[in-house]
Amino acid sequence: MSGILFDDDSWRLYRRHKGLLLLVLPGVLFFLLFNYLPMLGLVIAFKDFRLVDGIMGSGWSGLDNFRRLFGGADFPLALRNTVTISLLRLCFGFFAPIALALMLNEIRLSWYKRTIQTVTYIPYFLSWVILGGIFLIMFAQNGPVNQLAMMVGIEPIQFLTDDFWFVVLIIATGIWQAAGYGAVIYLAALSGISPDLYEAAVVDGAGRWKQTWHITIPGLIPTIVTLFILNLGHVLNAGFDQIYNMYNPMVFDAADIIDTYVLRRIVLMDFGLATGAGLFKSVVGLMMVVLANSLARRVSGGEQGIW
Fold first, then answer.
1. pTM score
2. Which of 5, 29, 43, 191 places its Cα 20 to 30 Å from the Cα of 81?
3. Homologous superfamily (CATH) for 49-299
4. Residue 232 and residue 281: Cα distance in Å, rounded?
């Protein structure tokens, strides 16, 4: 049987890299158990699911859950808010780590560079339960930020009750929390650029700006394209942890997203509708990744893309 599945060359390759394959095994098991196995539950989206009957015992409902999903009044609002917040994150949040990495790359004092890098990526490891509480205090109507604004003659800003300012707060704090950690990937890519290119540029009389424009940024393009394609897969993930810990009924019309909508349906025991919304998110994310990868390969002549 083994001879049918693997030829001699495959077995020799397996024996040579057996240690590396064993190192990969825990990661493979993790994704199988927590990412792929739960996908069997997507069948609930096509059933009239009842807890007492279980998944297999519940009757089929066809596309009724999706008709209720798109025909309801709440989901279109949640979809609009999700797309708006996600696009704003993509437009501003995606380029923030690139800019931070480029600035860190220009710092010549190694101790200062390490200090700034450490300070900027520490917030990524703090839970939004903690950060949300801090920001709710800081940006409250009588919080420190508005107190400072009034000291310089600026009227208090309703960060937590005004739709526009709440979205601005969500985007800004999200960038602050994730930019430092995201910059690590780009700094790793920058370390792979040959120093000989910069030395040749200096000989040709290129300054720091021209070196950045003609050497550094082109060297980052493969990493930027790959991460941009992967981020498109999360285009309908507007940041549940952050929004759930910071929003309130006053900004419901601007902050209610698909994930909070799904949570409400789960609380109401409407598992079919909640699963249908989750499946819709996954299908849209998959389509965006496939289309973006195809476009990247076509524009770059097959040089860029994930596959």
1. 0.84
2. 43
3. MetI-like (1.10.3720.10)
4. 12
From first to last of the 307 residues of the chain, give the pLDDT tens digit: 444 455 667 788 888 888 888 899 999 999 999 988 888 888 999 998 888 888 888 889 889 999 999 988 889 999 999 999 999 998 899 999 999 999 998 888 889 989 998 999 899 999 999 999 999 999 998 999 999 999 998 899 999 999 999 999 999 999 999 999 999 999 999 988 888 888 888 888 888 888 888 888 888 998 999 999 988 888 888 889 999 999 898 999 999 999 999 999 999 888 999 999 999 998 999 999 999 999 888 887 777 878 7
